[in-house]
Give the backbone structure.
Amino acid sequence: MAHHISDYLVIGSGIAGLSFAIKASQTGSVTLITKRRLADAATSYAQGGIAAVSDPEDSTERHISDTLSAGAGLCSQDVVSYVIEHAPARMQDLVDWGMRFDAERGLEAGHTFRRVFHAGDFTGREIEDVLIKKISQQKNIAVFENHIAVDLITTGKINRRFAGADERCWGAYVLDINGNTIQTFLAKTVVLATGGAGKVYLYTSSPDVSTGDGMAMAYRCGATMANMEFVQFHPTCLFHPQAKSFLISEAVRGEGAILRLKNGQPFMHKYHPMKELAPRDIVARAIDQELKSSGEDFVYLDITAKGEKFLTARFPNIYSTCLKYGIDMAKDFIPVVPAAHYFCGGVKTTLSGETSIRHLFAIGETACTGMHGANRLASNSLLEALVCADTAVTRARELVAAPCSFPDIPVWDSGNARDSDESVVVSQNWEEIRHFMGNYVGIVRSTKRLERAARRIELLQQEISEYYWNFIITSDLIELRNIATVAELVIHGAQQRRESRGLHYTLDFPASSAHPADTIIRRFPTV
Ligand SMILES: Cc1cc2nc3c(=O)[nH]c(=O)nc-3n(C[C@H](O)[C@H](O)[C@H](O)COP(=O)(O)OP(=O)(O)OC[C@H]3O[C@@H](n4cnc5c(N)ncnc54)[C@H](O)[C@@H]3O)c2cc1C
């Protein structure tokens, strides 16, 4: 089978991948692959918006200071400054491409000024629509939907002898999900824009595509990973068997909603003077504590004090979605649980998205640039993705301009793999990982819980690896293998951090160290 060759290979179609592709296509050919449809991305789910300074009474320094204080001592000051200083210019790109934001700005937890650009509570969906439309107008971009990257092709993967030496990325093996074939995509630069990994946890606000594929692929080929233990949990995700990952925005608490136990008693007064308006991690920890001590599955969010008229106007998306599941938020309490929401860590990169492997970039939630430190400030992630897609294009363009001759790259070899007659292994392992990650590596951790999790993931990794090499691979198996790898990285990151900081809270080391440092994980690449 012939290889697909282009200047840029972009993996992922959220805000990071799409905005990179639009700009890169001005100077070269772009291949964009995405594992479902283009719009299947966490970006489409963002409700709150994008933070950027626009009011003369606000200031860049203030936005920087809010970001650094959320990041709890681990942000890279240079990255934060660059991203925030360049926010207005990148927001203008979105507007030039057709995005329309509401006239007034939103206020969110941790921001000291109303600076969040939004479009109702559908901001992410609107942005994604605008970017997809723009992509469809570019001549230089070939889009492959329902194509899932399996593994990156690096110098060490082609020839074991060079593994770990001067690694360079040449492309990726990609499963065409409908055609059931594994194809080779080569490019002068490869960009991971594969989003986060919320699906590592049972309860998550993230969509099904968020299985940490880019993080796992990068780690397997030896890229440096950073701060994987900092997983942000959103306090209020709808608890309903059919509503897999629906978020009840923080703005609902901002409008006066009260958290109640199943017996109707409020409880936030026990945890923080600001009660329901306490910072996100404190509210999530309080709910977790109440659930662990009561053994219940959920708590309630009560916004019934506001009438239907107000709720339908302020929260049209949340109101209609709850109603679809039989909950009228003007009359009923909403059952909620904390849910994994955002990965602050990821593939360690420079501000320009360069990873430790030459010609391999990572941008958006997959990357760890240093922007978010130990805790992300609300509405800063779409911003970081947008700004770093731009800096990455500038650097990637230089690499693409240099002459390049591809080495001989073998086609994918399935060996003696056969069709699986035991798909139950995949679903069983998938469930097991997501359960124990929630219980042992969730909001409140301890040395003992992390040890238990580490033992379990080691066993599961062996089983998954055997299964992976013996059977013909499917997208479910690829994703299982990746969530197992990300779970392992989160556990090991959490074990290395012998302090509590930002989103990482452990009963055995409740204080913060006086010398904050990133957690770095790297392993010798495997083929
Ligand atoms: C419910 C919710 C609400 C949020 N609200 C906000 C908000 O208001 N403001 C804010 O700043 N942030 C918000 N966030 C976070 C923000 O949405 C994400 O961090 C951001 O959208 C990530 O963008 P991305 O381009 O990096 O990844 P994504 O948008 O997740 O896109 C990743 C893409 O990669 C594809 N992909 C993954 N693996 C593969 C593979 N192996 N092969 C091919 N394709 C692959 C996926 O299909 C997808 O297209 C929210 C997140 C959630 C879940």
Observations:
- DSSP finds 15 helices and 17 strands in the chain.
- Residues 415 and 469 are 9 Å apart (CA to CA).
- The chain has a mean pLDDT of 93.
- Residues 4-229+344-401 form a domain with the FAD/NAD(P)-binding domain fold (CATH 3.50.50.60).
